[in-house]
Automatic annotation (TrEMBL):
Any GO MF annotation of the entry: oxidoreductase activity, acting on the aldehyde or oxo group of donors
Classification via InterPro entries: 2Fe-2S-bd (IPR002888), 2Fe-2S-bd_dom_sf (IPR036884), 2Fe-2S_ferredoxin-like_sf (IPR036010), 2Fe-2S_ferredoxin-type (IPR001041), 2Fe2S_fd_BS (IPR006058), Aldehyde_Oxdr_Iron-Sulfur (IPR052914), Beta-grasp_dom_sf (IPR012675)
Transmembrane annotation, as ranges: none
Classification via SUPFAM superfamilies: 2Fe-2S ferredoxin-like, CO dehydrogenase ISP C-domain like
Signal peptide (residue range): none
Protein name stated in the entry: (2Fe-2S)-binding protein
Protein keywords: 2Fe-2S, Iron, Iron-sulfur, Metal-binding, Oxidoreductase
CDD domains for this protein: fer2
Pathway annotation from the record: Alkaloid degradation; nicotine degradation
Keyword set includes Oxidoreductase: yes
PROSITE patterns assigned: 2FE2S_FER_1, 2FE2S_FER_2
2Fe-2S ferredoxin-type domain span: 7-83
Length: 193
């Protein structure tokens, strides 16, 4: 049913299409959690401050609480439920597990989605506020702990698991760099940056 304040929309989430009526004011976060039972994406502040609701839109990080569901039509939406490759965890998920990158786990889905975005942004040569030389000819900076902290600074962790989170992101970035080069990476291992 549609009205001047609602529409039937189709969202493509983790490769599957979902058609549902939504009030135009419904956020993507509420559509995921309350309408589609995709509760892996967490609600923390509900105002763009904590990063708990981070998902990937067309491969880029976005906080789902500041995104209207109607504006997410025709986008590729990836949530934590969709980052693994079947039974094979995403390298970022594996690194968080191996290095204890969490305590209570509430912020973890957002941290992992954000880290996936960070690694792609870095590989694409995007600078951050911690990058000392942003000239294009300088090339991408090493993904140092300082760079990771800055790039992940939108994701808060009330448990303070930041040290392990930074280590996990560094390890996953090393694994993915090896995979890009076509090198074999043993399960659960990887080069820390
Ligand atoms: S719940 Fe979206 S940023 Fe906090
Ligand atoms: S692990 Fe508890 S809030 Fe981050």
């Amino acid at each position: 049913m549609t009205s001047s304040t609602s529409s039937v929309i189709t969202l493509k989430i983790n490769g599957e299409k979902h058609t549902l009526p939504v009030d135009h004011r419904t956020t993507l976060l509420d559509a995921l959690r309350e309408r589609l039972d995709l509760t892996g994406t967490k609600k923390g502040c509900d105002q763009g401050q904590c990063g708990a609701c981070t998902v990937l839109l067309d491969g880029r990080r976005a906080v789902a609480c500041l995104q209207l569901a109607v504006a997410a039509e025709n986008r590729e939406i990836t949530t934590i439920e969709g980052v693994a490759d079947g039974d094979r965890l995403h390298p970022v998920q594996q690194a968080f597990l191996d290095l204890d990158g969490f305590q209570c786990g509430y912020c973890t889905p957002g941290q992992i989605c954000s880290a996936i975005g960070v690694i792609e942004e870095h590989a694409a040569g995007w600078p951050s506020a911690a990058t000392s030389d942003v000239r294009p000819e300088a090339g991408p900076p090493p993904l140092s702990a300082e760079e990771i902290r800055e790039r992940m600074s939108g994701n808060l962790c009330r448990c303070g698991a930041y040290v392990s989170i930074v280590e996990a992101v560094a390890r996953a970035a090393g694994v993915q760099a090896d995979e890009r080069r076509g090198e074999d990476v043993p399960a659960g291992k990887g080069a820390a940056a």
